[in-house]
Amino acid sequence: MSLGLLLGLLCAVGADLLWLVAMGDHVRGAAAMPDGVPFAAAPTEDWPPVILLAEVTLSLVHELGVGGLLVWHYSTVLLALMLVALDARRRGAADLATSLALTVLVVAGIATFAVARLQTFSLVPFVLVLLLVRAQHRSPGRGMWWAPILVALWGNLHGGVLLGVCVIGAYLLFSRLPRRPVETVTLGVATLAALSINPAGWRTAEYYWGVLQNEAAKQGEGLWASPDFRDPFDLLMLLGVGLLGLLALRRRLPLWECVAVVGLTVATVVAARNGIWLLLLLAGPAAYGGTRVPGRFADLKLLPHARVVALVVAALVASAVPSAFRGHSLGEADKALAQEVRQAAPARVVLAPEPVVEALAVHGVEVWLSNPLDAFRAEDQRAYLDFMAGRPAMTTAVEGSGAVLVQEGTQADEVMAGEDGFEVVALTGEWVLYVRS
User: Fold this and answer.
1) Is residue 18 part of a domain?
2) 402: which of 207, 256, 348, 429 fits an S-S bond (Cβ 3.0–4.6 Å)?
3) pTM higher than 0.70, yes or no?
4) Domain total for the chain?
């Protein structure tokens, strides 16, 4: 109950979400699959529409406003946490140990659980994969054939399906293969083939290659950044991984699960946002490992005190998160900003930073470039990242735009102040629009 209240108070809409609403709006309006990214002026070279289902779904949810997106995210997170609790109880974890593991999970993963992003689509499918493979490890049967079905649906929603396939692969190779070799190979082939059951079909591999090779991933920027010890949310995530990992290792993990832990640890080192999958993987075993305290500590009443400490930490996080997310969440005010931009620069292509650029796209403003970054040419991706960082090389992106939206006092604002041929329009808040003369 406390965790649900905490998440309900903190939920916000972040970057990497509203572009799907804009895409879904276009699909519903045109009653056809999109040709690239229709709301962006930069060329997209026939981007494969792999996650069309996610786009249309969010477009429909957004009909209820930003609140609809928050309810969708909040409900998805609560369902995922309920499934994690079910997984822990199936392993034999006690109620108190399960609640403690969930508290650590929520606090450590607050950057994911409190912000609605595209990643939200993967929370429930990932936990369902864990429930499935753990049940099959205990008692192999035909139920494993749910894996290709789950992968096929998941693949139409979010690229996190690749990590789910890796977890399934670890189970098939290191648990099932020695016992059922022929069936296991067939299952593996079917699961991989299920990745292509989407509107892009055989071009699915091209899509995922583009995602993994985009310039933000290469440069380790934004959602692709490695863990940073100076970032409080990364630090919470790493501390949570350490605590859950120590508890999980108190009970012997099967080989496939050890392989999955190692793989997701490497993925987390590459990009901090992957830490949520490692936390979800460890939560169930950690609850089981924390159920009994061996040796001379067995009679000490440590767990109730630990729960108090966990709730205090959760309260501290609750007080810190709103200020940390301020300026990074999207809301109804962005509709008013989009209207101001349209009035100040009618029929102009607008260059704007994340996440507000996605709100502009949703409200009918043609932007130069936005998420999905991998849909665009590499040189345009680099130019946009230069703009986001306020580097002098951002002028390449400026050249393709009729107006440039920046926040006052940022490095991008300083660069634009030195550009000739623009008129300055002050907008609501700290926003400044440079309109080409």
Assistant:
1) no
2) 348
3) yes
4) 2
